[in-house]
Design a protein that fits this description.
alpha+beta, 24% strand, elongated, 8-stranded mixed beta sheet
Length: 450
């Protein structure tokens, strides 16, 4: 029975205080890594520091113990060897591969030792051998490994108990009920403590910002130089660590802006993790794929969504489930000045998400994927009815005949004191029938519209 001990209860209580949406779910299972005290405590510490962000149990272990495989989004509580709760983790990506096919990116994400594949293979060969021999089974390099990526979402250092007396009281009560070995009583105690004690800090606001284009589930252009940018306090060091083994750093400028060009390897069809860090702030991007990235832009033909197509009733079919086709829709936000940020979210293509994909963008991505067999990312920024010039750079557009004075014209159009804008402000309603086929244009004042 996986009953929560006082330490586990305490950490979970703080977590649901900070994230109330988890209040009504059961307390997650708690566990420690490895089969000995030293390794278990080391791994727990690495998880707590957000260095270890993956684990690799064998599929044989799940089958032998009749344990269900985890799912993306599942939460678990990591403890040390003695059951002291250290962190709460969330599963972000899953992949089953044979031991011999585990790659460097996953070994790096596991975060143990020197993070090399050689170290990973050596340590895990010994571990799987010990584990399987206890059950009379034998390890070989063809066994399936459940490569489980996760993120550390909460640690014991995140919480702040109001006083040592409060902590002692909680420990006393939970230890008493824990000895009863009664899950129902334990759950009742847990919710009572939630009501009585408000012992956790609010979530810390990050100073570090990365442009919204960079998110979980994104596709990054492979085999190229790709910029990542954002902002932080002026003259601060910013570091980027990537699970394929690269590390970069820079210093933000006097305005706090920073930009780092990363060199991306060729496609490897492995979900990666990108960590951006400055001082105590850290942002983690999970389930990142290397592939081809394309911008889909234009008018209504590009904006037209899959749910508006003739075969919209077929979108629930599993044929649309493709983890390697992804799209981000840039939310409409018209502006006469360049914007530094936007709203939108990367979506993995599935029967649940494809309805909001640009139809042209989706079939373009599918055509590329079918021919290239590599991940495809589409950035869809399209607005129906917009003229071509509204997408063009002003400096270039002014070189085109008819747009020579565009910058000045835009300035006038934004000035509320120009004759034209004052006229529009005063005469909001125009009777089209009054000036069609006539030399003189007439208007209807708002006060006379009735």
């Amino acid at each position: 029975m996986n009953l929560p001990n006082p330490s586990v209860l305490n950490l979970w209580e703080c977590f649901v205080r900070q994230y109330p949406k988890y209040r009504n779910i059961s307390i997650p299972k708690h566990f420690y890594f490895c089969d000995n005290e030293q390794d278990a405590n080391t791994c727990a510490e690495l998880v707590e520091k957000k260095i270890k962000q993956a684990t690799a149990p064998s599929v044989w272990w799940y089958e032998y113990h009749n344990e269900p495989m985890p799912k993306v989004g599942d939460l678990f509580i990591v403890t040390d060897w003695h059951g002291e709760a250290k962190a709460i983790i969330e599963i972000t990506a899953l992949e089953q591969v044979r031991f011999k096919d585990v790659g460097e990116a996953f070994a790096y994400a596991e975060g143990e030792g020197d993070k090399s594949l050689a170290y990973w293979r050596n340590v895990h060969t010994d571990y799987y051998t010990r584990e399987m021999e206890k059950a009379g089974a034998h390890f070989n390099e063809n066994i399936l490994i459940s490569c489980e990526y996760f993120q550390t979402v909460f640690t014991k250092d995140t919480k702040d108990m109001t006083s040592s007396k409060t902590t002692n009281f909680i420990d006393m009560m939970t230890k008493y009920f824990y000895r009863l070995n009664d899950p129902i009583t334990m759950n009742k105690l847990f919710f009572i403590l939630l009501i009585i004690f408000n012992s956790c800090n609010k979530e810390k606001e990050l100073n570090l910002v990365v442009n919204n284009l960079f998110q979980d589930n994104m596709v990054v252009q492979h085999n190229s130089i790709t910029p990542i940018w954002g902002s932080v306090h002026p003259n601060k060091r910013v570091e980027i660590q990537i699970s394929w083994g690269d590390k970069y750093e820079t210093i933000s400028d006097s305005s706090g802006n920073w930009r780092i060009n990363i060199k991306t390897p060729k496609v490897d069809n492995i979900p990666h993790i990108i960590k951006v860090q400055s001082s105590n702030d850290e942002i983690l991007f999970k389930n990142v794929l290397l592939g081809e990235v394309w911008l889909a832009s234009g008018q209504s033909n590009m904006q037209w969504k899959m749910r508006q197509a003739e075969n919209k009733d077929e979108l629930s079919s599993p044929i649309y489930n493709n983890n390697e086709i992804r799209m981000i829709n840039v939310d409409r936000n018209l502006s006469l000045k360049p914007l530094s940020k936007f709203s939108g979210e990367w979506q993995v293509c599935s029967s649940e998400t494809v309805s909001d994909f640009s139809a042209v963008g989706y079939f373009f991505a599918k055509k590329l994927y079918d021919e290239l067999k590599i991940p495809i990312g589409i950035i869809n920024s399209s607005v129906g009815g917009t003229p071509a010039e509204s997408w063009a750079n002003v400096n270039n557009l002014e070189k085109v005949e008819g747009f020579e004075n565009l910058r000045e014209r835009l300035k006038m159009s934004n000035d509320p004191n120009t004759d034209y804008n004052r006229w529009l402000e005063e005469h909001l309603f125009i009777d089209r029938l009054e000036f069609i086929n006539k030399d003189e244009i007439k208007y209807v004042d708002e006060k006379n519209k009735i």
